[in-house]
Amino acid sequence: MKLLRTNYYYTIKEGVLVLGKEKTENYLRTILKIQESCGSARGIDIVGELGVSKPTVSIAVHELEKEGYIEGINGSHIILTRKGMKLARKIKGRYYFFFYMLRYLGVGEENAKIDACKMEHSMCDESYKALFDFFFQKHPEIVSQENNRLKDLFF
To answer: Domains plus CATH for the chain?
Structure first.
């Protein structure tokens, strides 16, 4: 069976429901956030962060593990693999770049958060790099005392 339906959330491939790009990236960024503060994530932590049900998280965790992005430890704890960490950091960097860029341009904080989340998933690497290079060449002042350590995340 070939690809039946695709969107940013789920893809049905060969009769199996798999996570789409946006959902995968959101889960990985969330797991990274939790892992950075707690050392590892639990399903219930992800439920709290994303506001989704336990069964939804369970399905997503299973898919992320199958794809090699995460691994389970002691049955209830989740950590990112190298592959998962690499993608999660990339997405986190994109989010912060778009967030700070939008804030610099005068967009309100709440709208900047919402739009940065959308933008982080929708732009190809080539376009992102071009925008990143342009913005930091023309407006290096975005790298302030508060966020200059985040520049390493942007790529």
So the answer is: 5-80 (1.10.10.10), 92-154 (no CATH)
